[in-house]
Amino acid sequence: MDDKIKDYILNAHPIQWIEYSEELRDSSELIWKESKQTKVHINFPKRLDKPGLSRPYFLNIGFSIENLLKGLLISENPDYLKDGKISSEISSGHNLENLASKVTTLKFDKKELDFLKILSKAIPNWSRYPIPKRWEIKNTEEIVTENIREVFLKMWDKIGFKIYELTKDGWNGPNEVNLGLWRSSYFEGTLDFELPEIEKK
């Protein structure tokens, strides 16, 4: 197998998707904390009656959940990376509802699906640009709230734990690229499992 294909698959295995999603989650938390420091920050003034950090917050959490969903789908379907090409099943657009509908190891309730619907509109539109693609399209911008943050963090844990559960004891990727056992201090503190015994020779 071409080493470049192998490297591509190694850089796209589920752990990589979790790690990048975690960076985006942590960035969103920094934005959240900054937004709470003062009602009007000199560098982040309000936009009329809207918080100045609301759109960047949604952009970060949207991409964070998108990365997690793709990581979960790759955990379930390693062939989505076959031959060093990411499948169009998970790489076309930012429709998180569509991605969630492909997941087989988790169920999402109405509240979570409504949240994904918000993020699916935020990522390509109002959290990313000041105007929609055409004047006829209405920007239905959401405002960040404690409730939004809570839904995001709970959903992050839910999807992240499932990826961990599916891959912590190994992942059989495409093109004979396989990963062995791995452990995360974040997930270990929450998941109910025992470390496997090490065979002594």
Task: Tell me about this structure.
Helix 2 (14-35) packs antiparallel against helix 3 (54-76). Strand 1 and strand 2 (178-179) form a beta hairpin. The protein has 201 residues and is mostly helical. It contains 8 helices and 2 strands. A two-stranded antiparallel ribbon has the order 1-2. The protein has helices spanning 3-10, 14-35, 54-76, 88-91, 96-102, 110-126, 146-167, 185-188, and strands at 171-172, 178-179. Helix content is 53%, strand content 2%.
Short descriptors:
single chain; disordered C terminus; globular; 201 residues; 2% strand; mainly alpha; 53% helix; two-stranded antiparallel sheet; 2 strands; 8 helices
Quick structural summary:
The chain has eight helices and two strands. It has 201 residues and is mainly alpha-helical.
Shape: globular
Question: Radius of gyration from the CA trace?
Answer: 19 Å
Physical arrangement of strands within the biggest beta sheet: 1-2
Strand content: under 5%
- In DSSP terms (H or I, runs of 4 or more residues), the helix count works out at 8
Kindly, what is the distance between the CA atoms of the first and last residues, rounded to a whole number of angstroms? 33 Å
Give the oligomeric state. Answer: single chain
Provide the succession of SSEs. HHHHHHHEEH
Mean pLDDT, rounded to whole units?
A: 87
**DSSP strand count:** 2
Main β-sheet description: 2 strands, antiparallel
Approximate helicity band: 40-55%
Computed structural class: mainly alpha
Flag low-confidence runs.
Answer: 194-201
